[in-house]
Amino acid sequence: GAVVSQHPSWVICKSGTSVKIECRSLDFQATTMFWYRQFPKQSLMLMATSNEGSKATYEQGVEKDKFLINHASLTLSTLTVTSAHPEDSSFYICSDAGDYGYTFGSGTRLTVV
Amino acid sequence: AQSVTQLDSQVPVFEEAPVELRCNYSSSVSVYLFWYVQYPNQGLQLLLKYLSGSTLVKGINGFEAEFNKSQTSFHLRKPSVHISDTAEYFCAVSVGDDYKLSFGAGTTVTVRA
Fold first, then answer.
1. What is the pLDDT of residues A45-95, one digit of tens each?
2. Which of A100, B32, B63, B103 shows the smallest number of beta carbons within 10 Å?
3. Measured torsion, CA atoms of residues A30, A60, B108, B36, in degrees rounded to the nearest 10
4. Does B100 contact A105 at a Cβ distance shorter than 8 Å?
């Protein structure tokens, strides 16, 4: 089946710095990918839809200037958390949008100190 | 966005006992339904999905679910659980052509010996 590789699996950064999270589709072309955020003991909240070759679509309440999404190729989507603050600490997960199976990445635990 | 309700936030169960996790959704149109499992600090793994056809869906690891359109439910069951089934379980719904998934709040299953 489809494989989605997400890196890094965990990252600690200082407040005010930026962090980039990568999501790669290893054996298929992903024209659309989703980015989610998950707080401890909570469900996944959709942040944005990443579209290859075009601008991402953000969900209501998500700051597009803070969470930059780039989907420059059919195999790579990136999420950059800019000027990170402690409240951005969370678990971020990507998934593809293919064929009604939705393969998820393994997630990235971001801790901002 | 679609509403997905998982009626049980926590389900303790003894090893080899049966378990049922309840999921209800709100939609007046056709939906696609999913159950995912999440282990700590990991992404989501698909257990099973309903797209069309038979209302009884069999998934991995001995899980099955039944789609009930009249009751707008998609309950997950396993006749005999193992310690390794201890995890978080999410019900999710997709409607229409935008491929977006709406997740329930999750059910924590704890299997005890």
1. 999 999 888 889 999 999 999 999 998 888 899 999 999 999 999 999 999
2. A100
3. -20
4. no
Q: Are residues B103 and A43, on separate chains, in Cβ contact within 8 Å?
A: yes
**Residue carrying structure tokens 């600490």:** A89
Could you list the beta-strand ranges (E) of chain A: 4-7, 10-13, 19-25, 32-38, 44-51, 57-58, 67-73, 76-81, 90-96, 108-112
Task: Collect all residues of chain A within an 8 Å Cβ-Cβ radius of residue B32.
Answer: 100
Q: Do B106 and A42 touch (CB under 8 A)?
A: yes
**CA of A86, closest CA in chain B: separation in Å?**
19
pLDDT at A99: 62
Cis-peptide into A8, omega within 30 deg: yes
